[in-house]
Amino acid sequence: MKQRKNVVMVALAALVTGVAMLVYASVGEVAASDKLPDPEAEKAQSRIGPKVLYDATATPKLVQRILKMIILAAETGDIEEMRAVLESNELKPMVAAKHIDDPIAYLKEQSVDGTGRDILATMLNMLSTGFVLRGEGNDAMYVWPYFAEADLTELSPRQQVELYRLVPPKQAKAMIASGKYTGYRLGVAPNGIWHYFLK
Question: What's this model's pTM, rounded to 2 decimal places?
Answer without folding.
Answer: 0.74
